[in-house]
Specification:
This protein is α/β, with parallel strands linked by helices and 246 residues long. It has one domain: 4-Layer Sandwich (Metallo-beta-lactamase, Chain A). Helices cover 28% and strands 23% of the residues. The chain contains seven helices and 14 strands. The strands form three sheets. It has a six-stranded mixed sheet, with helices on one face. A six-stranded mixed sheet has the order 7-8-9-10-13-14. 46% of the residues are buried. The mean pLDDT is 93. The site of one zinc ion (ZN) has 7 residues, from helix 2.
Length: 246
Amino acid sequence: MTANTIIQVPILPFGMVNCHIIKGDSGCVLVDAGTPGSEGRIEKALREQGLSFGDIRLIVITHAHMDHAGSAAALRRATGAPIVAHEGDLPHYRREARMTFCPTGWAGRYLLRRGIILRPYEGFQPDMLLRSGETLDLRPYGVEGRVLPTLGHTAGSVSIELASREALVGDLVSSGVLMGGLIRTGRAIRPPFEEAPRTVGEALQRLLDSGVTRFYLGHGDPLGAEEVQRHAQALMRLGTLQSALA
Ligand SMILES: [Zn+2]
Ligand SMILES: [Zn+2]
């Protein structure tokens, strides 16, 4: 088995917005692309590791929110690496449909009211599209693991599951207070937006059942299995409650 190193790249300070570089034995995979204009921060993080854009062999976009897909088109030009994403979010990647947002609390309502989350980004056509339950083996890109659909946060959300029992889950779960922050960083919370809590809970449960012990997040510091288990159960209870009230 090859050894991976996961590098958390701060797009905003205090883990408020992260993307990640998975450094494998024979190449790197970039997971998420940050807000529009994040190329410089990602290049700096690569340089600090003795790497450059040329070491990126694949770009995985976990979902179409602008804080994850915002610099995807620019980073594809800079790295020459292909982009993989799920077809469920394709109309948004192509900027053909406006996203809808289901706020989970005051933070989501604030981001929506101020128009922050609606900030436009350069559209793109992913080079590889996962359809329904398809997965992508990452070994050809130098990393022991796979990309798999984990829908629910959006209709086209994906995660990366590594042989090292680590996973990068985008916005399936966040940690800390208001997307990262300095306090309660070990606490799982819902991200500012979430479309289908029960489906998200089930996706997290599948990753837990397959033995993932550490979860890397788009917002906040990584979480262990116990905290994610507690959160997944809460989401599934919430989903049951919502469907009972519907
Ligand atoms: Zn999101
Ligand atoms: Zn996000």
